[in-house]
Amino acid sequence: MTEVQRLAVLVESLLFVADEPVSVGQLAGVLESTPEQIEEALRELEAALQERGLRLQRMGDRLQFVTAPEAAPYVERFLGLGERRRLSQAALETLAIIAYRHPISRPEIEAIRGVNCDSVLRTLLTSGLIEEAGRAPAPGRPILYAPTFAFLQHFGLQRPEDLPPLENESTSP
Fold first, then answer.
1. Is the pLDDT at 14 greater than 90, yes or no?
2. Residue-level pLDDT at 154
3. Which pLDDT score, from 0 to 100, does residue 129 have?
4. Same domain, 56 and 105
5. Does residue 77 sit within a domain?
6. What is the span of the domain harbouring residue 38?
7. How far, in Å, CA of 123 to CA of 125, rounded?
8. CATH code of the domain in which 7 resides
9. What are the b/e assignments for 64-100, b being 16+ CB within 10 Å?
10. pLDDT given for residue 173 in this prediction
11. 77, 94, 147 from 140: Cα distances, Å
12. What is the pTM of this model?
């Protein structure tokens, strides 16, 4: 077994027992390795998981194990979760803005949507699809919002970069 493979096995074990997303730095510290070595082990682990029922989900430098998106209906049935709650059109629009423009403040969201978003933001926060990601340096220091790991899971994504690309506005007629 190579050093990278050994490290990948250890990273897999730590992610398996973690009850919340783990940073690359945390893994490097516990395994007495460099972040670069951890990243190499993560690539090895990710490749090994492609044909398995687990996936490595990543947001920034934090990661966690999730079930494969294609297994979602079976996992939901097994856990008795029933049908997912549907999001309103307003919630989907707001969520899309946050997903593509994060971190973003409520005034910026409202400028794009053209309507008040207080209620929708509360709903998305309560459902765990978005989180507060700090404060903007603008006057009044408005709260900034970003998508969460639950957002990625809800839409079957492994990382925010897996969102489909937006149409280029300059190519529109």
1. yes
2. 82
3. 93
4. no
5. no
6. 3-71
7. 5
8. 1.10.10.10
9. bbbbbeeebeeeeeeeeeeeeeebeeebebbbebbbe
10. 44
11. 46, 22, 22
12. 0.64
